[in-house]
Amino acid sequence: MCFSYLLIISLLSFFMMGLDKIRAKKVLHRIPEKLLFLLAFMGGAIGILIGMVTFHHKISKKKFVLGIPILYIMNKLVIWIVFYKYF
């Protein structure tokens, strides 16, 4: 169940990055950065990180270049603690 959640939130995060990149190119309404960070915080940091690299999106913004890897490490620590403690 935990794996399914992480997979879904990561895929959603990845697609949101792609959608935001498309909207940026077409000068349309953008996805709020707060939402992208919220998705990363909720376990989708790897999706955001892969989206940043794949779509070359948000890679010039320091808060993404530093913040998303930090959230990724935090996601991994939480997963490790949960599995170590309960499994």
TrEMBL record:
TM regions (residue ranges)? 34-55, 64-83
Alphabetically ordered keywords of this record: Membrane, Transmembrane, Transmembrane helix
InterPro entries the UniProt entry points to: DUF1294
Please give one Pfam family short name: DUF1294
Report what the protein is called.
Answer: DUF1294 domain-containing protein
| Organism of this sequence | Alkaliphilus serpentinus
